[in-house]
UniProtKB/TrEMBL annotation:
InterPro entries: BAG_chaperone_regulator, BAG_dom_sf, BAG_domain, Ubiquitin-like_dom, Ubiquitin-like_domsf. It comes from Sphagnurus paluster. The keyword Nuclease does not apply. This is BAG domain-containing protein. Keywords: Chaperone.
Length: 168
């Protein structure tokens, strides 16, 4: 079962450390601050001491909050080949089922419901890719997932840019 929860909050000044956002989310969700990961634009926000500007966070940024896996309940390690296959399967599904809808939307970016639907599906794909365990894995596996995240993020950027352009 998949659940998506959206939280809107005021972004602090650009020089504010990331830990302030993590603490706010921890307070709001009542999760320990180390019980979740933060992802922005396909990148893991992993330095709580860095300013939020280091991660290009700005007004209307989308940050994914992913619950950390309890190692006691982690599945058995997968082989590198099966990890790569999981990544490629996710991308293939997106390319065949979602890209045609995205291309149609880009040709006529006026349907708000379609914009929201496609955005949600792309964000879910990013979360699924993030959920694919890459440890222990080779540099090839990490590169494969990084490339897949970039491709999905590019689709999301194209979607949002087309929507923004038609609204202006």
């Amino acid at each position: 079962m998949t659940v998506t929860v959206k939280i809107t909050f005021d972004l602090p000044p650009p020089d504010t450390p990331v830990r302030a956002i993590r603490q706010s989310l921890s307070d709001y969700t009542r999760l320990p601050h180390d019980a979740f990961k933060l992802i922005h634009a396909g990148a893991l926000i992993n330095d709580d001491n860095a300013p939020i500007s280091a991660y290009s966070l700005h007004e209307n940024s989308v940050i994914a909050l992913i619950g950390a896996t309890d190692p006691r309940h982690a599945p058995q390690a997968q082989s590198e080949r099966s990890i790569v296959t999981s990544i490629q399967t996710e991308l293939h599904a997106l390319r065949t089922s979602l890209r045609p809808d995205l291309d149609s939307f880009l040709a006529d970016p006026t349907n708000q419901k379609e914009h929201l639907r496609l955005g949600e599906l792309l964000l879910q794909a990013l979360l699924r890719l993030d959920g694919i365990a890459t440890e222990p894995a080779s540099e090839e596996v990490r590169k494969e997932r990084k490339d897949a995240v970039r491709e999905v993020q590019d689709m999301l950027d194209r979607l949002d840019n087309a929507w923004a352009a038609q609204r202006s």
